[in-house]
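Budget justification, computational time. The allocation requested in the original proposal was used primarily to generate structure tokens for proteins on the priority list. As evidence of use, we reproduce two of the resulting records. The first is shown immediately below.
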Amino acid sequence: MEFWKKRYDTGERTVSAGALSAKTGKESESRIGYFTGAFFGVQQGKIAVICARSPHLRRDGLGVWQRRNEDEELRKFVFICAAGLLAAGLAFGGCGKKEEETKEPTQGADKEPGEDKDPDGSEDGEKVEPALTDEAKKLKQFADLEEGDTYARINIKDYGTITVKFFQEEAPLAVENFITHAKDGYYDGVTFHRVIDDFMIQGGDPDGSGMGGESIWGEFFADEFDQELHPFRGALCMANIEKEDTNGSQFFIVQADGDTILQMETLLDAQYEGMTLKEYIKAGYDTELTDEQAARYEVYGGTPWLFSHHTVFGQILSGYDVLDAVAGVETDDNAKPLTPVVIESIEVLLYQTE
């Protein structure tokens, strides 16, 4: 295994990419087998970076660029991941043209209102999502809704609903863009056009090609970063075109969990005699994490290499099971679902406690 940093000529720009490479060895039918993937950026620009797929490679890491040029051939190159990667309804509420006042279960509640859960968010002894615990709610990113907060239900055909809250003070442009598009029905019928298990699900392109979509202002808008908001599992983030301040309509929801982070750390430690995830992220992506921040990715999962590269403007409140179901769909070599995963509507609502 070797550490490398290389530049790739895409024709329209040069892309720097840092990753760990390794030989996978011979094919294996084992559920814990050879792996591929990497720490990637999620972009919506002129190139696409995807991992080579194989029936023996069960989990992929992926950098996703929205392609702007339909004539440009999809460019593929393989990043080998610094982790051992393990093998392995429907709400039709309309697009919410105006904000409705309603009650909604806060984080830690995948049940309907009125149904009881244990204090830590678990149900009948089931494993609880780390982001839904009382300990997690001490962090701004995972805190419960407060009276008058805006939230949204993303209704996905045949899969169910993902409920998200927004960070309106920290990312006002991204939130306004998403909410306005949602109220206008811009996302109705739009697909999640790129889906990578253990990484993220990406949507928001009306063309479904990965090359379309624009902001409510008809032009790119600025990034908005906050040291307390991270691309943890369940984070709602803006895609971009692999450069600063190029946000449009496309977004993604992080799906990688804490186990993936722990596997990455185990491999780094074994191959590099104690190299930490924090050190790798700094070396490969010039991204600084504190020890505390790095430790939180172990608990909550996520994509730490995307920190301060993509605006985090929301967080899942409920529907992690739906997120995982969508992330697990069968896809083609471009990570596009073989059966379209369709956003039927996005309802924009106001949280009321009474």
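The second record produced under the same allocation is shown here.
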Amino acid sequence: MNKKGFNWKSFFSKWYILIILALIYIPLIFIIFLSFNQGSPIKGNVNTKFGHWTDVNYLTLFYNTAFTHSLVASLIVASIVVPISVILAVMVCFGMWSNWKGYSKLVLGLSNISIAIPSVINGIALVILFSFTWIPMGFGYGYLTIIFAQISFATPYAIVFIYPKLQKFDMNLLLASQDLGYTRIQTFWKIIIPYLLPSIFLSSAIVFTQSFDDYVITSLVEGKVSVIAVNLYTMNKGIQVWAVTFGAIVMFITFAIIIIKTSITAGKETIKKKKDKKLVMQKMHTITMNKIKFNHNKHRKENRNA
């Protein structure tokens, strides 16, 4: 009897996806557990040795001034950067769509270059720009320089997400709006903007993430303003408890959104399947009844002829 060894190839072919997902999510789950662990008494750092299970980290989170000030600053910046970047992207995409293809290719190429250039290079370029324009006017680094810098690197992301959707726009809708007497502005607000809403929401989420998470460029132009990304990246005395707790909250919110969205999508698909099944049953019933009626009429004719 030949004993076969363990088949690693078969094992990985069946379970490699779960292994990859485990490598991604186990550290995240570990952060959630750490957020409920009692912190180290030394400098408020995270305690990696699991001991007393507590919720004090969540109860005291918003009493931490370093966290609250940086969180408020990040939200202020993001709340300004997101609408401006998305509005600029929509305007640029509409201009690209309305003009010749060479123009759209040029703008898309420049947007991709801006995304591909390392953040350090973008940050240095912005610092040089501010040193020749903003600083000589007597102003310093702060909220305005952060907002301008983030708009400059976030807008190309919004363009890349919005323009492909606009390329698929049905020109018949545009012609129909013109037949109804819509002006160019009315067509833009009542036809094109509603059509672009899914891409606008998606690009807003991407821009918000880029703004909230940016460290390299923001750290070069922030001045005395402390945003949460810079605060997190500059922890040189160990990871603070508030950082892990905040990370856990972000993951809870993200998981909740994904679960809700998945549930809604699954519910819609279930309803659609039930409707489709009902329509199929109705059609089958109609076909069956028509066959019965046809056969009945056929027999009646045959009986009459007989």
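A brief technical remark on that second record: The CA atoms of residues 71 and 228 lie 5 Å apart.
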